[in-house]
Amino acid sequence: MFPKPVQQAGPAASATYQTLLPVALVLWLIPLIAVALFSVKPGADFAVGNYWGLPSYFAGWENYRAVFFESNMPRYLLNSVLITVPTVVGAVALSTMTGFALGTYRFRGNLWIFFMFVAGNFVPFQILMVPVRELTADMGLYNTFLGLILFHVAFQTGFCTLFMRNFIRALPYELIEAARVEGVAEWRIFWFVVLPLMKPAIAALSVLVFTFIWNDYFWAIVLTQGEATQPVTAGITSFNAQYRASYHLMSAGSIVAALPPVVMFFAMQRHFIAGLTLGAVK
Amino acid sequence: MVEAPAVPQEEHVPPRRGWYRRNEIAITPWLFLAPGILFFAVYVIVPIFQSFDISLYEWSGLGSVAENGEYVGLANYRDILGIGPDETMDRDFEISIRNNFWWLTLYLLAIPFGLGIALFLNQTVAGIRLYKSLFFFPFVLSQVIVGLVFSWFYLPNEGLLNAILEFFGGEGVNILGDPDTATFGIIAAGLWPQTAYCMILYLTGLNAVDPEQVEAARLDGAKGWRMLWHVILPQLKPATFIAFVVTVIGALRSFDLVAIMTNGGPFGQTNILSFWIWDVSLGEGGLKYGYASAIAVILFGIMMVFISYFIWSMWRDERAVRR
User: Fold this and answer.
1) Which one of A113, A258, A282 has the shortest CB-CB distance to B141?
2) Residues spanned by the domain of B81
3) Whose CB has fewer CB within 10 Å in chain A, the N or C terminal residue?
């Protein structure tokens, strides 16, 4: 193990390390701690310039109640869910199929198609912006959930294919060959042999795509406008315009907007990290 | 005595199979690929070429580019790059390219920072798992939230940064309001989640480092920096490669932080190509779709250099493990 475990360096080193850990963590998260502190202060504190003293009283409940019951935030949250969940389902479904095709079969052009997905996944969004906006408008889908979902599904398929294909290649190929020798139809091999083995990959990709799409801001402002369709990342800017300089409410609103992927991360941590670090170890 | 194996009396007649069954292995992959390729082609591949086309027009986005746009050849590129007599480079392009350079260079610091934190956290004390998660979780936050959090952190009067500086007797600064520091303030905000990402890559990599090699090197008297450089880092190469890919792409693609924190200001000094493209078409710069597409093509060209390198590396690895 590297570096050497602190326990081997004696109790003094161990104690120093254990004190340093929380200090380092507080320093690392300090901008976020500041926002959390703001979100439980009453608005009156800001008026008298009490930014960094203790809150004059705990105003967490009223601030968060205002976010949930007096603003458009619940609507934006709902929009985000209605955009994110179908995208996750669509992108994962498409990429299990493309990943299976590219990971199991040898045919001309296999690697080229694979690299097309990989390269497309890296292109700057901005080169797609004008044509995709036109296309979406032509289909009558501008400012609809479906317009945004279709694009997200298509774009995420690039990354998801890379992920699924590499995962399937790491599976024991003998299983597929054995099934073929038995005369099992190819689509049944996919459904009954490969798919059950892909559960961990599907879980990992689902949480990753959920986070990517929930956090998307660029396409939200390119393809939607207004509170009926905009997800929470775009909604938070209107929210902030509405509560300009009310730092307690803006802070509470931001924390609410940021929370779903954070909860998702802590609940599905193992899958999340397995997904992000695929390929980091040979 | 050996029994003869049972042999069927009649000659084996293969069951009659349809065309699909006979060609199953050749056709199935294409059936499975079809929906994915269709989506990807319509929304990603074709739009890239359409952008190349639109970049040759002057077009305000009304109607279709063929009917309402005016074909101007390479004029958009000439205006941006300032090629030809008596022409100067678009000032915003100059600023954007300079800032893109800073973004790319400074963003790469996330790799050594991430490695540093990973080395710091690679211990087995009580509660270390929670510490690792808490160090990582800024990456899970949306860039919009990161941008807001840092904008407030930097605020001249209400921000915590100045409160801290003044507590230690320093002078207050207005990082995002000063054209000379604003871009660096935004990059610092971007480094926060990016460092977390690199950290998790390295933590995973460190977990898989071969303990026998480490012990053998220790017996040979290697420790500290020499151990890190000669024994550990070579084993972390795959993690470093991925960290490099995601950091380069992240730096060139970043849009949200600039849009949220400064909207390109003050005086356009925090522009980067990705934001500028949006600004001249959908943003305040106004409806110059052809011009925006030409900038997008230039950014695409810059990124293609890196993308080609990544693909080439992957292709080399693929050949090595070809089965």
Assistant:
1) A258
2) 51-89+288-323
3) C
